[in-house]
């Protein structure tokens, strides 16, 4: 019987949809169909390449263009402060992840974005992990993230690095809540099965000082004489204050009448990206002038720091305002138009793609036709009846 012969490894395949084949170890031969042959491969944890879909001519991402409204997320973040205690166990970070509806996991194919919430007087304990992350401050003051002993202030618009395997903890020493954006390359690192994680042995790090990296590396055009000896693969400058970015964007716009200007957060020693896997930029858009339609490989997470406007992503229109977060999938055409001067903070895996020689970008000559309008989940008031998560907190 053919089924017996397949099980013993002996196969003879003939013309048409049948082919001649002889497998090592076989003792018998039989005519089998291509379907039976594929079944025989599957039963041996194999597959024929011909049974796979052909490679597409261009990226066809599973990631969907999507948007999360600040008016929806911020109340949930505050509610998380009431229902979840930050501690040294599983709940070390009160981060609300943006889950892309097209993906099993992730905000984009490589990255997770989240809004993290920290109550007044609260601390999130120190740990380190192989995935690299960035922080972009949205609301709050007198908050700092300590990175390998260097306490980095986080005022609204500030950008702070927590590189791969660097110890980091967060402290809110003010009397108001804080919300910031996290972007972490954990989806990519998990796909590569390369995640390592370690809790700090003392809970919180000792603070060696404040703004140490800025004092040493934070002066544009002036490099510390020891800079060339910086041994690590990420920027030695850990904080990029918004005040500097704002001034630089304003100066750039004075010399340009284009619809937008963009700055990238760079490693001041190498001129490369601040982190080896993440490219982070700030784009300032003038009102009333649409940007040139463009597309690039790799998903992008856009966070609206200020301003209002709309973007067309793959023919779908998204309107946005301060605090909204939206995703542009790989190779999706995107163009922006601001109603008022807008600053968009953009994080992507471009740095990783460039290192692998997989990055492509192109501008398109024609504006997109709007064929659909995105309707986000509606804003809701915090659900006072929601069950507590983990170690519940009582209402103040
Ligand atoms: Fe972390």
TrEMBL record:
Keywords: Dioxygenase, Oxidoreductase. This is Cupin domain-containing protein. InterPro entries: Cupin_2 (IPR013096), GDO-like (IPR047183), RmlC-like_jellyroll (IPR014710), RmlC_Cupin_sf (IPR011051). Residues 1-26, 373-396 are annotated as: Disordered. Pfam families: Cupin_2. It comes from Streptomyces liliifuscus. Residues 116-183 form the Cupin type-2 domain. GO terms for molecular function: dioxygenase activity. PANTHER family: 1,2-DIOXYGENASE PROTEIN-RELATED, CUPIN. It comes from the Bacteria. Transmembrane segments: none annotated.
């Amino acid at each position: 019987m053919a089924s017996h012969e397949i099980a013993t490894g002996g196969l003879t395949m003939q013309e048409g949809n049948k082919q001649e084949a002889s497998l090592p170890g076989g003792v018998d031969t039989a005519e089998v169909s291509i379907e039976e042959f594929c079944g025989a491969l599957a039963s041996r944890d194999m597959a024929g390449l011909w049974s796979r879909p052909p490679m597409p001519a261009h990226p066809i991402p599973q990631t969907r263009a999507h948007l999360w409204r600040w008016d929806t997320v911020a109340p949930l973040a505050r509610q998380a402060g009431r229902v979840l205690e930050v501690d040294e166990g599983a709940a070390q970070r009160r981060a609300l992840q943006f889950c892309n509806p097209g993906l099993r996991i992730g905000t984009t194919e490589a990255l997770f974005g989240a809004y993290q919430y920290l109550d007044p007087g609260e601390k999130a304990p120190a740990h380190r992990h192989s995935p690299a992350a960035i922080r972009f401050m949205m609301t709050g003051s007198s908050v700092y993230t300590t990175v390998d002993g260097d306490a980095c202030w986080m005022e609204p618009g500030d950008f702070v690095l927590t590189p791969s395997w660097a110890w980091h903890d967060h402290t809110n020493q003010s009397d108001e809540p804080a919300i910031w954006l996290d972007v972490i390359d954990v989806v990519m690192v998990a796909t590569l099965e390369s995640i390592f994680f370690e809790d700090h042995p003392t809970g919180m790090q000792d603070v060696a000082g404040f703004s140490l990296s800025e004092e040493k590396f934070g002066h544009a055009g002036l490099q510390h004489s020891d800079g060339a000896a910086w041994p690590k693969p990420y920027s030695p400058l850990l904080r990029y204050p918004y005040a500097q970015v704002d001034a630089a964007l304003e100066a750039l716009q004075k010399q340009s009448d284009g619809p937008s200007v963009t700055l990238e957060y760079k490693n001041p020693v190498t001129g490369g990206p601040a982190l080896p896997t993440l490219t982070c930029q700030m784009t300032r858009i003038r009102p009333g002038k649409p940007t040139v339609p463009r597309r690039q490989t790799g998903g992008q997470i856009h966070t609206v720091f200020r301003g209002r406007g709309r973007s067309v992503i793959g023919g779908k229109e998204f309107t946005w305002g301060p605090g909204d977060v939206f995703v542009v999938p790989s190779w999706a055409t995107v163009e922006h138009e601001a109603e008022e001067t807008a600053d968009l903070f953009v994080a992507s895996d471009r740095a990783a793609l460039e290192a692998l020689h997989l990055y492509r970008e192109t501008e398109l000559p024609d504006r997109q036709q709007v064929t659909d309008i995105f309707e986000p989940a509606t804003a809701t008031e915090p659900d006072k009846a929601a069950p507590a998560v983990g170690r519940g907190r009582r209402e103040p």
